[in-house]
Amino acid sequence: MPRISRAKLTTDIVLAAVFALACVPFAVLGGWPDLVLLVVFAAALAVRRYSPAWSLGLAWAAALAQMLMLRDLQLYDAAVFGVLYSTAAHGGRLVKWLGLASAGLGALLATGYLAVVKPLIDNAGFTGSQDTIGMLMLTLVLFVASIAVLVLSWTAGLLVRSVRDTREVRRREEVANRERELVEYRYVVEQERNRIARDMHDVVAHSLAVVIAQADGARFAASSRPEAAVEALGTIAGVARGALGDVRLLLAELRHDEAGAPQPVLDDLDGLLDQVRAAGLDVHFTETGQRLPLGTGHQIAVYRIVQEGLTNALRHGDVTEPVRLEFRWDADGVAIALVNARRADAPAPESHAFRHGIPGMRERAQLAGGTLQAEAGDDGMFRLAARIPAQAGRPA
């Protein structure tokens, strides 16, 4: 039994009542038998979506009772069309095919009743070959018309069911795609967090090694060379402040059994630009303002953001157009602006094609205390804007 809302059931009951009221003036002429049949057919319409099986059973009971009582064709018989429609549109697998079988069997019984039984009873038999031919012609016409309208009602319900099922499948696919995209996004962010943790692990390990070495030197030189101890303490303070900024970038995940590798800094940007230019990308790089010392973690963030932005320009941009990369330094840090022309077939920034790039860049910027925005403009240009705050650098 399909589950329908109370509103839909109420709507079906109201429509069945309206149908019954429309048929009452015609049913009254046939007396109480037709009124009883009208009530049964109306009940079949009222439950056609709540229980298509009961609706089909009630319609069959009313139709058979109508034939057994030798009643004439009435307006309330039109309820059969709604019942057959509902068996195909709302019934289960068995009820659906019982509806189709009912359409064929009902057409056969209705034809026999209207073309053979009623004329024989009303006229007490046929006389002559002309009456026999007329009966055969009437039987054929009634059968074709009956099966056509009954099967048509069932087919209309089947088409509506198919459209509804197709929409439901599409809706579920959309929900599944959104859930998959969310899972993929979280996976990419988690991978980038782990990558950042590995980068910061090396930076902090180096800083702590410097602090320990300077502290040991200061401890031994404190009595004999106080000036060396003071210098060492100053070095420790600078390194510790830089390390504190990097520690704030660390995630909960720490690497295990990972091979160490040198981490890129701002001085490595020239080599990166040479690489992408050799790959065919015309990069115009400008830098304004006084460059400030950044912590190692912040330098890695700047490098990775520029690297990913240029990589996206190679993959999805028009390499025949120049790429503009600009660094604008101020007292608070550096603003990065990267603009490149998009290809006509380039995907949108939020599509699957960027799922391994933009989320990672945004995560790096946020963990460095900055921001990142990426958008595709109506003018065919792709714009990447990031802001990385300044942090005091550390001695080498």
Give your account of this protein's structure.
There is one protein chain. The chain has ten helices and five strands; from the N terminus they run H-H-H-H-H-H-H-H-E-H-E-E-H-E-E. The protein has helices at 6-28, 32-46, 52-68, 79-90, 93-123, 128-221, 226-247, 269-278, 296-316, 358-367; strands at residues 283-288, 323-330, 333-341, 371-376, 381-389. It has a five-stranded mixed sheet, covered by helices on one side. A hairpin with a 2-residue loop joins strand 2 and strand 3. Helix 2 (32-46) packs antiparallel against helix 3, helix 3 runs antiparallel to helix 4 (79-90) and helix 9 packs antiparallel against helix 10. The longest helix has 94 residues, at 128-221.
Task: Calculate the terminal CA-CA distance, rounded to whole Å.
Answer: 77 Å
N to C succession of SSEs: HHHHHHHHEHEEHEE
Form type: rod-shaped
Structural class: alpha+beta
